[in-house]
Design brief:
Layout: E1 7-12, E2 18-19, E3 35-41, H1 78-84, E4 93-98, H2 104-114, E5 120-124, H3 129-139, E6 146-150, H4 154-164, E7 168-172, H5 189-206, E8 210-215, H6 227-231, E9 234-240, E10 246-254, E11 262-268, E12 271-274, E13 293-300, E14 303-315, E15 323-326, H7 330-342, E16 351-357, H8 369-381, E17 389-391, E18 394-395, E19 401-402, H9 407-416, E20 421-425, E21 438-442, H10 445-453
Parallel strand pairs: 4-8, 4-9, 5-6, 5-7, 7-8, 13-17, 15-16, 17-20, 20-21
Antiparallel strand pairs: 1-2, 1-3, 9-10, 10-11, 11-12, 13-14, 14-16, 18-19
Helix pairs in contact: 2-3, 8-10
Bound molecules: thymidine-5'-diphosphate and magnesium ion.
Thymidine-5'-diphosphate is lined by residues 98, 100-106, 135, 138, 267, 269-271.
Length: 454
């Protein structure tokens, strides 16, 4: 008789590293108490030669798999629908992450209250039913089929689900849940993983969409195991500056759509208001022209937006000059300053440089480079740039101006908003006659400097 032998190993629940022995801290990811014993091999023998078990699933040709037409659930929140790729897919598990106080609970409650004739179960482990009622009154949504449950045990949540039979489940937040199947405190890596996998199985088996709200850690990742992000279908990030009113919803992962879409909201006294036409919101209104500001024609996601960049260049008081950037990558700023210093001969090495993107948003589009450079030069020269001029172009390491993607869309948006001139790279191939706006093409930063300040 073959001897059955169970082989186990120890795995980190956070990063998946394997160890032969238990230890308190994972040497790979430095997390504490994440190492758990798991069975790696149950029995010797050939699994394919064992007795066959019954399986309900069947191998199908791709062409034979039928798609039901009512695929997506449209919410009345068009920005959210857009980010999700056109609505919520039945059975999808969506993870929404964001900093505390950014408005995750508000967004989800607003979604739940706005879905008419659609039963939603909003499970909160963070706030009492009274607190949620107060918020709902503030949001001013009328009656709806939204039910509120304050509960943190997954087993109890499933009991209520059986009674309520919701069409959508919202969990606020995954870090507060605990499952009786595991003996660990809520918020621990193994609890988060277990609770999430129970909800995932529920979503897939009943085709009920589940939205999980997740906390994020100091460095911006979703708290808990990285596996959580792999398990779910969609990962959304709600970001913005708490002191500003604008919020941006981005998809970091989407199994049912693109991740390039983004939703823009404004936090007002009665909840989140959708911003459908964001082009001009990020430009400050001022009466006189000030040095150090420039406007960039950027594309965020797939939408063109005009964003104002402010720079302040001043003589450093201390030995080491300070560099600081809000909404823009600090390393990229250092690179642009090095290019200005080395390739274009501007003496910025002994200057403090501060950079700020207005509206408290973060910009990823590399074509904002040219605008950043223009704002820095404007502040350095103390000469204002007209607010009828905008910029679109990337700056390379040798000081060359590289073409921006989808330039026609940017030009059209600038034209629509009443700009008179747009500065772009000469490597962008466009039909000049097509646009009313004056298009100026440049190959090097020096040429722009000559045009603007001489
Ligand atoms: P909340 O949804 O509780 O944030 P999270 O769940 O991400 O922690 O949002 C709280 C913030 O939103 C709070 O600081 C106040 C603000 N807010 C408004 O400005 N207007 C409103 O109508 C609501 C409900 C909240
Ligand atoms: Mg909350």
């Amino acid at each position: 008789m073959a001897k059955t032998k169970v082989k186990t190993a120890y795995f980190c629940q956070n990063c998946g590293a394997q160890y032969p022995k238990w230890q308190g801290q994972c040497s790979a990811c430095k997390e504490w108490n994440t190492i758990v014993e798991e069975v790696v091999q149950k029995e010797v023998g050939k699994p394919w030669a064992n007795k066959r078990t019954d399986s309900k699933s069947k191998a199908l040709k791709v062409a034979d798999i039928s798609l039901t037409t009512e695929s997506r659930i449209k919410t009345d929140n068009t920005e959210l629908d857009r980010v999700l790729g056109g609505g919520i897919v039945p059975g999808a598990v969506v993870l929404l992450g964001g900093e505390p106080g950014i408005g995750k609970s508000t967004l989800m409650l607003q979604l739940a209250l706005g879905l008419k004739n659609f039963k939603t179960l909003y499970v909160s482990g963070e706030e009492s039913a009274k607190q949620i009622k107060m918020r709902a009154e503030r949001l001013g949504e009328g009656s709806s089929d939204c039910l509120i449950l304050t509960e943190t045990s997954t087993q109890n949540i499933f009991t209520h689900i059986d009674a309520v039979k919701p069409n959508l489940l919202v969990i606020d937040s995954i870090q507060t849940l605990h499952s009786q199947a595991i003996d660990a405190s809520p918020g621990s890596v193994s609890q988060i993983r277990e609770s999430a996998s129970e909800l995932l199985r529920f979503a897939k088996e009943t085709a009920t969409p589940v939205i999980l709200i997740g906390h994020i850690t100091k460095d911006g990742g979703i708290a808990g195991p990285k596996i959580l992000e792999h398990m779910v279908d969609v990962v959304l990030q709600f970001e913005g500056d708490r002191n500003h009113i604008y919020r941006i919803l981005r998809a970091q992962k989407n199994r049912f759509g693109s991740t390039s879409e983004l939703g823009i909201y404004e936090m007002v006294s009665h909840g989140l208001r959708e911003v459908h036409n964001p082009s001009k919101i990020l430009i400050s209104q001022k009466d006189e022209a000030l040095s150090g500001t420039a406007i960039s024609a950027t594309i965020e996601g797939v939408r063109p937006m005009l964003i104002e960049v402010q720079a302040l260049v001043s003589t450093a008081v201390y030995g080491t000059p300070q560099r600081s950037a809000t909404g823009f990558d600090l390393r990229r700023l250092s690179m642009l300053l090095a290019v200005l210093e080395k390739r274009c001969g501007f003496r910025l090495g002994a200057k403090d440089v501060f950079l700020n993107i207005t509206g408290g948003i973060k910009v990823d589009d590399p074509s904002i480079d040219l605008c950043v450079v223009a704002a820095i030069l404007s502040s350095n020269e103390d000469v204002a740039i007209s607010d009828k001029i905008c910029f679109a172009g990337e700056v390379g390491l040798s000081g060359e101006i590289r073409p921006a993607t989808r330039i026609e869309q940017r030009i059209l948006e600038a034209e629509k908003l009443g700009f008179e001139q747009i500065f772009i790279s000469k490597y962008n191939k466009i039909e000049v006659g097509k646009f009313a706006i004056n298009i100026l093409s440049f190959g090097k930063i020096e040429e722009i400097y000559q045009t603007l300040f001489n």
